[in-house]
Amino acid sequence: MYPGGTRYPDGGGLTAKQRAQREQVRFEAAELFAQGVRSPQVAWPLRVSSRKSAYDWRARWRQGGADALRSKGPSGRPSRMKPGWCVWLAAELEKGPAAHGWREDQRWTLARVATVIARRFHIRFSLAQTWRIPRQMSWSVQVPGRRAAERTETAVAAWMKETLAARGKTVRGQDAWLRFADEAGQVLRPPRARTWSRRGHPPRVTVRAAGSGRISLAALVCRRPGHRTRLVFRMLVHHGRKSEKKGFRERDFALLLEAAHQQLGGPIVLVWDNYTHHVDATMRELIGRRSAWLTVFRFPSYSPDLNPAEGVWAHLKRSLGNLAPCSTDELAGLVRTRLKRMQYRSGLLDGFIAETGLIAGQP
User: Fold this and answer.
1) Quick one: pLDDT band at residue 352, thresholds 50, 70, 90?
2) Pick from 177, 183, 175, 345: which is nearest to 261 by CA?
3) In whole angstroms, what is the distance from residue 150 CA to residue 141 CA?
């Protein structure tokens, strides 16, 4: 059973465009009837799945001609939700639940949407009716993205205006590779992902609850005009032993940059965040030694959405959803395989960059 008792996405039957298209098919059928074509032979060229429809059209055509096949307009009683109300409702929903008194969370539920409509227009819609209204407005249920409360939008805007322009000028002047860097990690417990299951019986995924194995990752998304976008990464595997490194340190980052410089050649304009190991004295010294071919810019604080490397990690973790129990070395092998696949998909890497909006009008 479909919510609201209908199988159509807009909750109100066919749209005006769809009704016009079906009406045109019936008119074409009327022309074939006039030429003496039999009903079964009419269905096939018009791609009508049911012969019964062709017989019904012929009966109506015999009684009233082509005019009898015209569309009768939308079925059912007209909606009480006026088009102008939808424009107002969309603007109110954009303000968020807090603007309407719900401050304990930031979710729009059907009950809350119905309450907002009732407060303004004094009409109470049922939940089934309310379910149709956002869909008619091209709204859908989505998982929200997160943004740090400490983020300052004015600082981000200033960075986009000043630092982004300076970075583009440097890239053009040096004909350099523009590289975005970031780090990530993955433990043996995989991310959860949706899967099919019998209704009312959510599946259970067996995971490892013991053990401290994990992997640390560092990656560079590299872009240069006239070249395909590249991905360079390094991995550290932690088995939980005391002698192992806990993560990437300053010299590890420096070695990664040198390897990328040797592999791709040309100057490097590096953009990364304000992680402790990126800004401390040791890192500044290592960058100074490589200043002949390395220029560094930093993202504004609390702005991971501006870094294309975050798209790499998100894509990787989605591919590891509901991962079956495995060892740390098996996990490392799976991660390495998936990252290598991304290295051959420059279009995918371009998509990660385009999603940030940093390259519009930039090299």
Assistant:
1) very high
2) 177
3) 27
